[in-house]
Amino acid sequence: MRLVSISDLHFYSATYSPMQLFSKRITTNLNYLLNRKKKFDPQQTEHYLTIIRKIRPDYVLITGDLTCSAMSEELSQAKNFHKELSKITPNILLIPGNHDSLTLFSRGRYYKTFNDQDLKNKRLKCIPLNSNWDLLLIDTCYFFPHFLANGYFSQQLEQKLASKLDSIHNKSVILACHFPLEAYGYPQKHLIRFEALKTLLKSYPQVKLYISGHKHKSSIISTTPYTQVQNPALFDRSKGGFYTINLNNQDFSIEQYLRK
Ligand SMILES: [Fe+2]
Predict the structure, then answer these.
(1) How far apart are CA 52 and CA 45, in angstroms?
(2) How far is the CA of 213 from the centre of ligand 1 (A)?
(3) Strands (E), 7-150
(4) If residue 133 lies in a helix (H) or strand (E), which one and from where to where?
(5) Range of the domain at 153
(6) Alpha carbon of 143 to ligand 1 centroid (Å)
(7) Which residue ranges in the chain fall short of pLDDT 70?
(8) pLDDT reported for residue 22
(9) How many domains would you assign to the chain?
(10) What separation in Å is there between the alpha carbon of 178 and the centre of ligand 1?
């Protein structure tokens, strides 16, 4: 069974209004114009779709930041990409990232487009991939004020995740979260209470893989008992790409398609 893992698409549409002076949207526009526009090439959409078609995955996982600020035009571009992926496999699994929750209303617009009431309300969802593997999605995205790009692993989510993992026996688990398990960009960009999540995972050796995005930097870190897969930003001109994860019984192997 093959799972293609992609992240941080950051579909963008320029919109300007005086209200942005009071919103995080202005930071996103500036960041795009000064930085991301040079680095990102969403014209590679067809290029990647062609590669993913050849891989013929059973599942595609998207670990967040489909947009820059969940504006309707950005969501519509993300939806079109999702539609093309769903012609390859109907099993597209996704979580939002901090950019999909950038302003007070972004998260609501994101979930209106990618309807998933379970994940929206409970912030945790379990998808049985086959008889050997389950995939757990967690949504740790909240609205934060200007200049903060954090996520938050709440105590409530910690309890829900522990109780879900308590109920999973004789199966291996992949946990997908937008944020890596580290003090990245501390104190502005990391997952608040990531230490609690790391501690929890030590008690559940059935979690074999932790997949995240957010950093725009690809890496595979093998630690005990789980391996951390850090997805690159798909459309990054120099460091973009994605991973393919092959799942066999209780084992897995990882292949990469990176533009390095
Ligand atoms: Fe992010």
Answers:
(1) 11
(2) 7
(3) 59-62, 92-94, 124-128, 133-138
(4) strand 133-138
(5) 2-258
(6) 12
(7) 15-28, 30, 32, 34, 36-38, 260
(8) 52
(9) 1
(10) 7
